[in-house]
Amino acid sequence: LSRSVVSLALHIRGTILGYGIANPRGEKGLKASVQTVLDGDTPIPSNVVSVLSMLWEQYKELKAKLIAFEKEKNALTRQIEPCQRLMGIEGVGETTAAMLYTTLGDGKQFKNGRQASAFVGLTPKQHSSGGKVFMIGIDKCGGVKELRSLLYLGAMSYVGRLPEKPKTQKDAWLRSIIDRIGFKKACIALANKVVRTAWAMLRYETEYKPVLLTH
């Protein structure tokens, strides 16, 4: 359903753009562009306008169904005990918790957190040369693409709101990564850490408790 909504929006945008009409980003931008077309103040032929009008109605209907589905799914997720626990991790909401639980299960199929993270595609690749092992970036080929995207977006949201004076060890760790190698690497590091933490919680049926800094 989500892919259908995105695909339809892209089709509408592409058609409008093909006639040289400005197409601002976002839902509001799309709505404004379509309204301009429907008002008739464009060089777009009337038969194409009719088709765009029909596509726009389909888009709104699908969007409403998607919103209703997401609300129902999130409500269900909040009732699942393992998902409730996973939502305590930094940057993890209902959708990410559900996908983590679906992907990792009880955690027993993975030897450790690193193996779970590698399955998702968030463990740094290794390259050996002359007896030395070099870390050469995140492996984006394997794993669960949608979950990986959700984890990164959640990490971006969390890291973007980090306080200047961290109160937990996790926040202090993230702040140090930002200072050393930048915001993006901190987000990737958090996403990786989330999978490892989630695996441990599911494997050993534990709660997540942030460790506070002691001053």
Layout: helices, strands, pairs:
Elements: H1 2-17, H2 26-38, H3 46-77, H4 81-86, H5 94-104, H6 113-120, E1 124-129, E2 132-138, H7 145-160, H8 169-181, H9 183-204
Antiparallel strand pairs: 1-2
Describe this structure in words.
- Helices cover 64% and strands 6% of the residues.
- It has 215 residues and is mainly α.
- The protein has a two-stranded antiparallel sheet with strand order 1-2.
- The protein is elongated, with a radius of gyration of 22 Å.
- The termini are far apart.
- Mean pLDDT is 89; it is low at 126-139.
Look at the helices and sheets and give the structural class.
mainly alpha
Tell me the radius of gyration: 22 Å
Summarize the amount of helix as a percent range: 55-70%
Count of alpha and pi helical runs: 9
| Apparent shape | elongated
As laid out across the biggest beta sheet, the strand order is 1-2
Mean pLDDT: 89
Number of strand segments: 2
Low-confidence runs: 126-139
Order of helices and strands: HHHHHHEEHHH
End-to-end Cα distance: 50 Å
Largest sheet: 2 strands, antiparallel
Which percent band covers the strand fraction?
5-15%
What is the total number of structural domains?
Answer: 2
